[in-house]
TrEMBL record:
Binding site for 5-aminolevulinate 1: 210, 222
Binding residues for 5-aminolevulinate 2: 279, 318
GO biological process, one term: protoporphyrinogen IX biosynthetic process
Name of the protein in question: Delta-aminolevulinic acid dehydratase
Family in the record: Belongs to the ALAD family.
Residues annotated for Mg(2+) binding in this entry: 238
UniProt keyword Lyase present: yes
Species this protein is from: Heliomicrobium gestii
Length: 329
């Protein structure tokens, strides 16, 4: 039966879905191993493997085991990692963050020695190194902005001096990208890019990460410096400021609940866009998969592909190593 006026059945979209080869040929967006960045958590000691209870499959690792995991990930197809560090001691000025012999600096050197081809990004923040767990200097019960910038800049320079390929400030202090860019340039690291957490929201999705990074604030919360989840246009303003200050890659964090922000940034700015598939998103998938409620492989790849479809050029994800293995099956 033909319906001439409607055009049916001349147009049949299902024709392009009948065969797996054809489906791949006409697919608009693709997930590739090089799109994924694998986060790792470094802790002091030797032969340390501390499983993170809320993130099955994720562990805090001593530097010797960070090296093993990084090399194994590279062999599996991972091309980039992001390093986070937990220092042996914390203080009020985050001295472990910019110590030339600090935990991240040590891990960068060791991984670069073992696997020079692996691209290393370092998280630049102060929360893991502060006794109070906030991302900036505290004065009179307030997280103060400008005094925090020098510590952040010194941290970024120390990471670059250790051999980091890129630095990624995640603190959300105003002006930190400019301070870091100036400090890197003045120290001879003008070729080191900055991936800025440009639109980082004060989200409930970060809970498991705070266990992994031991960075839970001892009091208060981070809503005075991270963005309100109800705001969208503000993300454009934050990102524009970071671009003016010299960032090279812009980022949205978290991922799944903020794909609209990714799309707005991609359509507005002519820079690569990263997205962080954060700990809470990872843990929800792991928990549901452990109950047999979902197919972990299919849903993980679908989530990651949705981030590409929204406009992300790269994805930081705890699923990275598994996802690449699944892609290659």
């Amino acid at each position: 039966m033909k319906h001439i006026l409607s055009g049916y059945p001349i147009q049949r979209p299902r024709r392009l879905r009948e065969n797996a080869v054809l489906r791949d040929m006409v697919r608009e967006f693709h997930l590739r191993p090089e799109d994924l960045i694998y986060p790792l958590f470094a802790v002091p000691g030797k032969d340390v493997v501390n499983p993170v209870s809320s993130m099955p499959g994720v562990c805090q690792l001593s530097v010797d085991n960070i090296v093993k995991e990084a090399v194994d990930a590279y062999k599996a197809g991972v091309r980039s990692v992001e390093l986070f560090g937990i220092p042996p001691e914390k203080d009020e000025v985050a001295s472990g963050a910019y110590d030339p012999n600090g935990i991240v600096q040590e891990a960068v050197k060791a991984v670069k020695d073992a696997c020079p081809e692996l691209y290393i990004i370092t998280d630049v923040c102060l929360c893991q190194y502060m006794t109070h767990g906030h991302c900036g200097v505290v004065d009179g019960g307030r997280i103060v902005n400008d005094p925090s910038l020098d510590y952040l800049a010194r941290t970024a320079v120390s990471h670059a001096a250790a051999g980091a390929d890129m630095v990624a400030p995640s603190d959300m202090m105003d002006g930190r990208v400019g301070a870091i860019r100036d400090a890197l340039d003045e120290s001879g690291f003008e070729g080191v890019p900055i991936m800025s957490y440009s639109a980082k929201y004060a989200s409930a999705f970060y809970g498991p990460f705070r266990e992994a990074a031991e960075s839970t604030p001892k009091w208060g919360d981070r809503r005075s410096y991270q963005m309100d989840p109800g705001n969208s246009t503000e993300a454009l303003r934050e990102t524009a400021l970071d671009i003016q200050e010299g960032c090279d890659i812009i980022m949205v964090k978290p991922g799944m609940a903020y794909l609209d922000i990714v799309r707005r940034l991609k359509e507005t700015f002519d820079l690569p866009v990263a997205i962080y598939n954060v700990s809470g998103e990872y843990s929800m998938v792991k928990a549901a998969a452990a109950q047999g409620w979902i197919d972990e492989k299919r849903i993980t790849l679908e989530i990651l592909l949705s981030m590409k479809r929204a406009g992300a050029d790269m994805i930081i994800s705890y699923h990275a190593k598994d996802a690449i293995r699944w892609m290659n099956e």
